[in-house]
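I hope you will forgive my troubling you with a question about protein structure. You will find the record immediately after this paragraph.
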Amino acid sequence: MTVKVLIIDDSVMMQMIVSEIVKSDSALEVIGTADNGMDGIEKVRALKPDVVLLDIEMPVMNGLDCMKRLKLESKAKVIILSSVAQVGSAQAIEARQLGAADVIAKPSGAVSLDLSAKKGHVITQAVKNVAGV
């Protein structure tokens, strides 16, 4: 079974980095990307991912508002991947309360060029864990 992953992040650079991390594991497949929560909801409806990697700070609709809508529309598991989701932060706590399966902090801000080196294995393992693989 291949786990279908949708990446929602307003940074094209982060979409590319996260995509490469996900693609590095043969059990995972990137089925799409979205630039904001509103676009993400549309992509979830159309693509039916197993797991959504979701940023919090985005234009149009932020990640927490997106999660509220996704809970009503999809069974996809949500993993927050955000620079504002540090352990114990208000955003991380709210994401957990909204049903996030995991919360992973980007190590170096909104555009973390070192994400693969510092958190790549953590991300792929979290996706597989929440998908039951």
